[in-house]
Amino acid sequence: MSLIIRNLSINDYDQLKDTMVESYSAIGGQYWRKERIQKLLHLFPEGQFCIEVDGRVVAAALAIIVNRVDCGEQHTYEQVTGHYSFDTHDPAGSILYGIDVFVHPNFRGLRLGRRLYDARKNCCRRLNLRAIVAGGRIPAYCRYAEQLSPQHYIDKVIQKEIYDPTLSFQLANGFRVTCILTNYLKGDTESKEYATLLEWKNVGYKPTRAELKHKETGVKTDRLYGPLTISPSFAAA
Ligand SMILES: CC(C)(COP(=O)(O)OP(=O)(O)OC[C@H]1O[C@@H](n2cnc3c(N)ncnc32)[C@H](O)[C@@H]1OP(=O)(O)O)[C@@H](O)C(=O)NCCC(=O)NCCS
Hints:
The chain is α+β, with helices and mostly antiparallel strands. The chain is about 30% helix and about 20% strand. The longest helix has 15 residues. It is globular, with a radius of gyration of 18 Å. The structure holds coenzyme A. The site of coenzyme A (COA) has 20 residues, from strand 4, helix 4, strand 5 and helix 6.
């Protein structure tokens, strides 16, 4: 079996689409249209990864860069992706925002997701970004929704009393839950449209000159110290 992890290319599109449809079959087989993937590859090629097994793309992870201001705590998937346009991508931002990760159902539990996350972490380190942030689905929540609040459910997943295919995976990869998002992904009936806001900190992050200057002078820089709210341009996206 040959396994290659590499940056995504537009030539992968047909296989990527098939894998994505299978991956999300439980919530309607949503997939990215070709022009959207093309735009993402144009904006941020080094942030998009896929895994090829025996010549077939069976897994992928997609990301953009945003400002801390832009990923203010409560937000929806539609907002963070700029109505799915990726116009929210800002190469000068400090956060790598994970917009998708999926592994074909026949290839799950083989640590392909882990490899994609390792590639994403390396990308975050290489670009000297402060952290990776993502809104994570909680697809097993629908089985517990009648007995447990989302908070209670997430606590049980963190304590390993319940296994959630997505949240357990993200926790195993060193992410921590920073808040609960409501109405995050339209049509995500499995998660009851709840999601976790997840963060992985790049401990090797080197502050920029402006940030060091702030430490000396107390002068705020927009890049880091904006309030944790959604900026007007972002909210209108
Ligand atoms: C979430 C997803 C990407 C995980 O991919 P995966 O390749 O199956 O995950 P991995 O094999 O890399 O698992 C990594 C860790 O997750 C946990 N995990 C994964 N599958 C598990 C299972 N069946 N039982 C218990 N733990 C499991 C383990 O802790 C594992 O840690 P380990 O490497 O120490 O064993 C995959 O389930 C998926 O595509 N889901 C549908 C799409 C989706 O919802 N994406 C998330 C959008 S927010």
